[in-house]
Design a protein that fits this description.
This protein is an all-alpha fold. 72% of the residues lie in helices and 0% in strands. This is DBINO domain-containing protein.
Length: 144
């Protein structure tokens, strides 16, 4: 009975150590992910600080890897081997971010063009209103 209890305790301790190692590995992966995101953000902000238009920003149409990831971002990986699952998640996140950015650009340009049309329409109405006001300048507003 004592031998069985000792084996159970040893198994429980081994399970606990294994869980702690898994948790430590997960925490390290989270830290690596946050660091890589910080590096990506600082790289992005560094490019933003230079006077550039939205057309001159780098896109994925040019120099990309087989997965569609810009080769400039592939260089940001650390020296140590990364988990393939984590790498795939990063690629998916990058693709999703690029898609969201392109969709937002489309929405912004559509909004800008609609505003421009409305402004042109308002300018025409203002001119017509001014013309009608000029013709009615001889009206006596106190005694219509």
């Amino acid at each position: 009975a004592e031998l069985r209890k000792k084996e159970e305790r040893d198994a429980a301790e081994a399970l606990k150590r294994e869980e702690e190692l898994r948790e430590a590995k997960r925490q390290q992966q989270r830290l690596n992910f946050l660091l890589s995101q910080t590096e990506l953000y600082s790289h992005f902000m560094q490019n933003k600080s230079a006077p550039q238009t939205s057309e001159s920003l780098p896109t994925t149409e040019g120099d990309t890897t087989a997965e569609g990831v810009p080769s400039s971002l592939v260089d940001l990986k650390s020296d140590e081997e990364e988990d393939p699952e984590e790498t795939a998640l990063k690629r998916e996140a990058l693709k999703a971010a690029q898609h969201a950015a392109s969709e937002q650009k489309k929405l912004t340009s559509a909004f800008d063009s609609e505003c421009m049309k409305l402004r042109e329409g308002v300018d025409i109405e203002v001119m017509a209103a001014e013309a009608s006001i000029e013709g009615s300048s001889n009206i006596d507003l106190l005694h219509p």
